[in-house]
Amino acid sequence: MLYWLTALSDGGDFFNLFRYITFRAGGAFLTALLFGFLFGRPLIAVLRRKQGKGQPIRDDGPEGHFAKAGTPTMGGLLIVGALATSTVLWARLDNPFVWIVLGVTLSFALIGFADDYAKVSKQTSAGVPGKIRLLLGFLIAGVAAYFAAINHPEALQNQLAVPVLKDALINLGLLFIPFSIIVIVGAANAVNLTDGLDGLAIMPVMIAGGTLGIIAYAVGRVDFTEYLDVHYVPGTGELLIFTAALFGGGLGFLWYNAPPAAVFMGDTGSLALGGALGAIAVATKHELVLAIVGGLFVVEALSVIIQVLYFKRTGKRVFLMAPIHHHYEKKGWAEPQIVIRFWIISLILAMIGLATLKVR
Questions:
Q1: 42 CB contacts (<8 Å, ≥6 apart)?
Q2: What is the pTM of this model?
Q3: What's the gap between Cα 193 and its chain centre?
């Protein structure tokens, strides 16, 4: 929205700053951060008053989690609110990729909100049935994938870019949309599974989001893509503003979610943010790089899949409890120890993901 202030510029004054993506990204970051600080405490007070007993704690969960009874959920409203407000304020609203990613984020937030509402209203850990959540997720992701495909350059439409290999493209054809659906829905649910300890999910999401923002900015500039030998996707640079807002909103939320958490993200936040990461990866043609940058989420999801399949086949468990962060809780690791070590792993994976831009 503020981009249109450039119409008042003569090319050498203050309004000219709004032409620059980096300037507007900084503004989006500060706006989202301020939003979190201003509305965080009032929102938590409303959630605590409306929810009463807060998020239900599973009976079969780690023993230490029972002390968290009464903590409100749906804190993702704070992140999504900050993210959406800042993006609309600072991004170019004529950019289709901004609306694709923002649409996925808000749509998955609605699914998560419905799930959280069902849980707190019925005081049960079972919310919206999984099949309904998946079906809605598939529909939303399918629409997003279609619009991403038609807005990609003709040479990249329905193509899968392979990292590290120069100019390597795999023509997925009609499989591009199903593949993109798996990326978006898979990312959403992987982040959802990771959100099990105070502060565990939000920082890796911010790290992954920031990394994808840098990638989006790079692939959206023809001079950068020529230097790095990566595929040029016009318009994706504006997604840096979205990811900057995500980072600012995430920090504002972390202020209240740091152990001991005053509020939980809930499915409202985890599904929305995971879906956003998947949508950015599809938009920038870096779907495979997302598996590296968001490797922590991949491991968390795989630990659940392995646990379920192995138990059905043998009646035994590979992990003491899945997702894998609960395995380490059962082994006696302190919650802050798990959280900080997982943050470190996320940062390492993000650096490896960034390196794929130049390693060709």
A1: none
A2: 0.95
A3: 12
- Please report whether residue 68 resides in a domain: yes
DSSP state of 282: H
Please, what is the angle between helix 76-90 and helix 239-257, to 10°? 150
Compute the C-alpha angle 42/43/49, nearest 5°.
90
User: Is there a domain that residue 90 lies in?
Assistant: yes
Q: Quick: pLDDT tens for 82-138.
A: 999 999 999 999 999 999 999 999 999 999 999 999 888 877 777 788 899 999 999
Is residue 261 domain-resident? yes
Is 292 inside any structural domain? no
Candidates 63, 12, 16, 27; CA nearest to 241 is 27
Cα gap 115→238, rounded to integer Å? 31
Tell me which residue of 35, 36, 3, 38 sits closest to 21, measured CA to CA.
3
Residue-wise pLDDT for 158-186, tens only, equals: 999 999 887 789 999 999 999 999 999 99
25: containing domain: 2-286+314-355
Average pLDDT over residues 331-354: 96
Domain count, the chain: 1
